[in-house]
Specification:
The structure is a single chain. By secondary structure, the protein is α/β, with parallel strands linked by helices. It contains 7 helices and 8 strands, in the order E-H-E-H-E-H-E-H-E-H-E-E-H-E-H. Helix 6 links the parallel strand 7 (about 165-170) and strand 8. The longest helix is centred in the first third of the chain and has 15 residues, at about 55-70. It is globular and about 55 Å long. It starts with a strand and ends with a helix.
Length: about 210
């Protein structure tokens, strides 16, 4: 596939929730490598060390944009890193694209205030589309999609024996624990992987293996 002869600046956390002890972030593991397959140049700005000071983070982000001169700025909003004024300043330098993967539970409390200040927004929640339209934003509907395993895409229909009947990868929280517990009561045991579960965290390679087997 021919790559886009442009530069993308990614503004992301290098580590999971900005904590090196938790390992490499999903942003770096999933998005960075795939963006590099699409475009000739990918520049990066890791903002982990500025998480405790949003004002400095915003100033450093704009400074990096001026230095990089990208054709597109790609980022994944997390909490309060980017206020509307900063997003407007970013957009005035280059088109911005943001990935919103939590719209199913925090569109009204979070996304709604930021989306109008971003050039292009991506959502993984089809039920959020009318909400976006109500604020004058036309989002791109996507999904978390599939990862390659050993350089190839796996067809689950070709697998004869799965190693896990039901599996889940993601940090434990109150809601997820409730679902897993309720499924267990109904005889459906779920093997869970991630921070807070007995199996603990796993790397991307292991996660891909679980999803494919």
């Amino acid at each position: 596939m021919k790559r886009w002869n442009k530069k993308i600046l990614t503004v992301m956390m290098e580590y999971d929730y900005g904590d090196p002890k938790r390992g490499v972030s999903g942003e770096k593991s999933w998005f960075l490598d795939n963006l590099a397959k699409l475009t000739e140049t990918v520049d990066t700005f890791w903002y982990d060390s500025y998480l405790a000071d949003p004002a400095v983070l915003r100033a450093k982000t704009l400074e990096k944009i001026r230095e990089s001169k990208p054709d597109l700025i790609f980022f994944i909003p997390y909490t309060d890193q980017f206020d509307p004024a900063t997003l407007d300043a970013m957009k005035s330098s280059a088109p911005t694209m943001a990935w919103f993967g939590d719209d199913h539970w925090r569109f009204d409390s979070y996304t709604k205030a930021l989306a109008p200040h971003i050039s292009h927004v991506i959502t993984t929640d089809p039920w959020a589309l009318p909400k976006y339209h109500s604020i004058g934003v036309k989002p791109i509907l996507s999904e978390w999609a599939a990862q390659e395993v050993d350089g190839r895409l796996v067809d689950p229909r070709a697998i004869e024996n799965f190693e896990w009947n039901v599996s889940f990868v993601g940090s434990a929280n109150e809601v997820r624990t409730w679902f897993v517990t309720e499924l267990a009561k109904r005889g459906i045991e779920v093997d869970c992987f991630g921070a807070g579960w007995p199996n603990g965290r796993i790397d991307v390679k292991k996660m891909n293996h679980i999803f494919a087997h």
